[in-house]
Write a structure and sequence with these properties.
Distance between the termini: 35 Å
Number of helices: 13
Helix content: 40-55%
Shape: globular
CATH class: Mainly Alpha
Structural class: alpha+beta
Low-confidence stretches: none
Length: 475
């Protein structure tokens, strides 16, 4: 038996340590440790409620629109306007948010994960890149093609940022999404520029990204059986009708042991048994953030959210699994087609390769849907609903970020923020053990995996398949 620590896990956002106990070439125990404390939930208390929008978007510079969106949903509900958002406001929010999703999925595949599978030796710019791996599952031509696409994806990411900034004002940390809708009315030239850049990005997604993901899936088909979690949860994303959990492009729900269920936000509890905090397991409405860095039982700054007492994987695998059952017909057709090309069924979604394939399915579908949303913008109609801030109110904002389920819970008292809690996707996925000793999803995905003499490589592939964002996880 030996203990191996990967500290830090590179090519992710933030500071993550994974400790592995390996016996007879198999991981028998894993511990996922968030190594940073931030305290943004504490900083928000006592501030004006509208500050939540601007401060929480700065939780992360990679997925800031997720927090901007969740905060706006929470404020919409607290201000009593969640059912009165103009259609333009809803559509423009969706377009800004979706642009960030496209960027995130391209970033994750090419620049965070692909170096775990390809070799950069002897290729252009190799002195500036990691050496990659030498497994020889790709032919030299395939390897060189993937590296060229690695470089091409840098330009596509730039275009995705431009796409977002056209409507959001800037990236990171947009300025357009506000309670009630958006604060920017685009003109025809802006919408034309948006459509032009979107077409370029769609071309890359449909002609290059999907092909590269499918190639990886074929060469590493064994990774459809590695890194599995049996429980999937999503809050859904992109309202296309009302602003509740119903009527979302990607539906809310969960899958447990292959069976879908409706999602009930009241069943979320967040514990700190193995985290460096004081307190009891509680719903976000009642939870608090009380750091305790000397806590003997603690090994992570990440808390441990659970749904009905169980750890759930959140992210693209969950969204695709639910959307195959409850989502739009055109999504189901696309997802089944790409799953078929990969030679797997929906049961393979929660795996290393399944997560990569899920992101590709989402990106292609979402880019096409964005084109349709763009045509629905009516320049003669309002983009926001007026509001006033009541002295006392509360609201929750639930959405999926690119990495999974994201929730903001806000309580206003005497016209100020009295309570603010955030549960981010990586808080779910990178959570430590709970009061029953049950592991978080990343820990569960690692445990039981055969690694032989390649513990660091295999573990890195598993962890990165979740696309951890540790700044979000510890907020």
């Amino acid at each position: 038996m030996r203990v191996v620590a990967v500290d830090p896990i590179t090519r992710i956002e933030g500071h993550l340590k994974v400790e592995l106990t390996v016996e007879d070439g198999r991981i028998v125990r894993a511990r996922s440790s968030g190594a940073l404390f931030r305290g943004i939930e504490i900083i928000l208390v006592g501030r004006h409620p509208l500050d939540a929008q601007r401060i929480t978007t700065r939780i992360c510079g990679v997925c800031p629109i997720a927090h901007s969106t969740a905060a706006s949903f929470a404020l919409d509900e607290a201000l009593g306007i969640s059912q009165d958002i103009p259609q333009n406001g809803r559509i423009l929010r969706n377009l800004i948010y979706a642009a960030n999703w496209l960027h995130n999925h391209i970033l994750h595949f090419y620049h965070l994960s692909l170096p775990d599978y390809v070799s950069f030796r002897g290729l252009p710019l190799s002195e500036f890149l990691s050496s990659g791996v030498e497994e020889e599952r790709f032919s030299s031509e395939e390897n060189e093609k993937l590296v060229q696409h690695y470089l091409a994806a840098l330009e596509v990411r730039r275009k995705a940022h431009e796409l977002l900034a056209l409507l959001g004002g800037k990236m990171p940390h947009d300025m357009a999404i506000v309670p009630g809708g958006v604060c920017f009315r685009p003109d025809p030239a802006t919408l034309l520029a948006f459509r032009f850049r979107l077409a370029e990005i769609r071309g890359f997604l449909e002609n290059i990204y999907v092909s590269d993901v499918l190639l990886l899936c074929r060469r590493y088909a064994d990774y459809f059986e590695i890194g599995k979690v049996r429980r999937l949860l999503t809050f859904g994303a992109f309202p296309e009708g009302n602003f509740g959990l119903e009527g979302r492009l990607f539906p809310a729900g969960l899958v447990k042991d292959g069976e879908p269920e409706k999602f009930d936000p009241q069943q979320i509890l967040e514990g700190v048994e193995s985290s460096w905090y004081r307190g009891e397991k509680a719903h976000p409405w009642e939870n608090s953030t009380q750091p305790d860095p000397q806590k003997v039982e603690g090994y992570s700054w990440v808390k441990a959210p659970r749904y009905k007492g169980e750890a759930y994987e959140v992210g693209p695998a969950a969204r695709v699994a639910l959307s195959l059952l409850w989502g739009p017909q055109d999504f189901r057709i696309l997802a089944r087609e790409l799953l078929g090309e990969a030679g797997v069924g929906p049961e393979a979604l929660s795996s290393v390769m399944g997560r990569h394939l899920s992101r590709a399915i989402e990106a292609v579908f979402l880019a096409k849907r964005m084109d349709g949303w763009l045509s629905q913008v009516d320049l003669d109609q309002p983009v926001a609903k007026a509001f006033h801030v009541p002295p006392e109110a509360e609201g929750q904002g639930l959405t999926d970020a690119p990495r999974g389920a994201l929730g903001h819970w806000l309580r206003i008292k005497d016209g100020k923020i009295a309570h603010y809690q955030v549960i981010s996707p990586t808080t779910w996925n990178a959570s430590p053990r709970d009061e029953r000793g049950k592991p978080g999803p990343i820990e569960e995905a690692l445990e039981g995996t055969k690694v032989g003499d390649n513990a660091l490589l295999v573990a890195g592939r598993i962890v990165r398949s979740f696309d951890p964002c540790m700044a979000c996880a510890v907020q």
